[in-house]
Amino acid sequence: MKLSVIIPAYNAKSTIERCINGIVSQLPRDCEVIVVDDGSTDATGNIIDKLAESHEQVVVMHTTNHGPSVARNKALDIAKGDYITFADSDDTIAPHTLEYALDTMQQHPEYDILEYPTHVDRGTEGQYDVSFSDCAYHSFAEYWLKLQGYNHSYVWNKLYKRELFKNIRFTPGYIFEDLWIQPLLMKRASIIATTSKGCYLYSYNPDGLSHNLDAAQLEMAVRAHAHTLSELSATHSDNPHFCTYYLKAVNIQIDLYSATGNIILDCHPIPWSYIKQITGKALIKAIILKLLGLKMLCKIINLTHKTTNATH
Q1: Burial level of 198, CB count in 10 A (0-12/13-18/19+)?
Q2: Of the residues 159, 165, 221, 300, which has the fewest C-beta atoms closer than 10 A?
Q3: Is residue 211 over pLDDT 70?
Q4: Does pLDDT of 207 surpass 80?
Q5: Could you give the 3-state DSSP secondary structure of residue 50?
Q6: How far apart (Å, rounded) are the C-alpha atoms in residues 293 and 252?
Q7: With contact defined as beta carbons under 8 Å apart, do 90 and 15 qualify?
Q8: Contact between residue 117 and residue 201 where contact means Cβ atoms under 8 Å apart
Q9: Contact of 170 with 211, CB cutoff 8 Å
Q10: 270: Cβ–Cβ under 8 A, 6 or more apart, which residues?
Q11: Which residues are CB-neighbours of 191 under 8 A, at least 6 positions away?
């Protein structure tokens, strides 16, 4: 079997049919779509059961509600495809995207992961595209730092060789599960490729977990970045791309400090040669970080925000 598409679904009655039909319509017959009803309390279960009757490629699992990570893990346990990909139940995949991706993977058996473009619709927050050129990266560090893979670490706009998931599963209960599992998978990959063809269409869900963060979930994101930064620092701490990644993580750490007063992120030195190349607020933060350290930076930013809010 060529491809297993895994879709966790929870109370998705208004979108799940569109999602599944759009995927099935572009798949060869020797592919499967595994839909996991994660304990839905609406009509989702009935809808996907009927779709399975109409489409022989659709495989349905019904489980109690434990979240998308557990649902994906259950599907991975039964997936038969040579390749694995994921979709969320409220999203769609542009026509022919999966055909293009499969053809590319089969034309390049040396590719372990293939990432294709994404259109992100965040409702009132705006829209943006994540586009790629046709390129191949020969290490996790090259992909993660040079291409800034941490900014598009989505699990769903990629095809993976199924063998990458051997003894690797999503961590239950983690809101930013992508940030944890992607480095694990990509460090196993010999080549991570990108393609300019196709598009994953991400739809904003105001009730989604990632749009309703609490302090504990924010801490999960910081811990994920801290772990990856620690691994990369031994050989890439002087790399300008590493510094850019670190400052990205620092911004999240500042938000966490504002919410909890906790410092999770390690302090990595930033060369003056890098600081001289940046401008604006990032420059100010980098200088404070360099001279006074991470905790003092967090305190200063937090105090500045409190002062600003008090005057309005």
Answers
A1: buried
A2: 300
A3: no
A4: no
A5: helix
A6: 16
A7: yes
A8: no
A9: no
A10: 243, 246, 247, 286, 289, 290
A11: 108, 110, 111, 112, 113, 136, 137, 138
This prediction's pTM: 0.92
Q: Give start and end residues of each alpha helix (H) in the chain.
A: 16-24, 44-54, 68-78, 97-107, 140-141, 177-188, 215-236, 240-260, 272-275, 280-292, 294-310
Reading phi first (left if > 0) and then psi (alpha if -120 to 50, else beta), residue 112 is in alpha
d(CA 247, CA 251): 6
194 Cβ partners below 8 Å, 6+ apart? Answer: 114, 115, 116, 132, 133, 134, 135, 136, 137, 147
What is the C-alpha to C-alpha distance for residues 177 and 219, in angstroms, rounded to an integer?
13
Beta-bridge partner residues of 35 = 7, 60
Query: Which 3 state secondary structure label does DSSP give 93?
Result: strand
Per-residue pLDDT of 116-163, as tens digits, reads 999 998 777 789 999 999 999 999 999 999 999 999 999 999 999 999
Give the number of C-alpha atoms closer than 13 A to the C-alpha of residue 304, restricted to the C-beta side.
9
Q: Which residue is associated with the tokens 């003894």?
A: 167
Name the DSSP letter for residue 28: -
Q: Which two tokens stand for residue 286?
A: 């980098």
Helix or strand run (H / E) with residue 121: strand 118-121
- Residues 19, 184, 174, 41, Cα dihedral to 10°: 30
Q: Are strands 118-121 and 127-130 parallel, antiparallel or unpaired?
A: antiparallel
CB atoms within 10 A of CB 77: 11
Is the Cβ–Cβ distance between 192 and 113 less than 8 Å?
yes
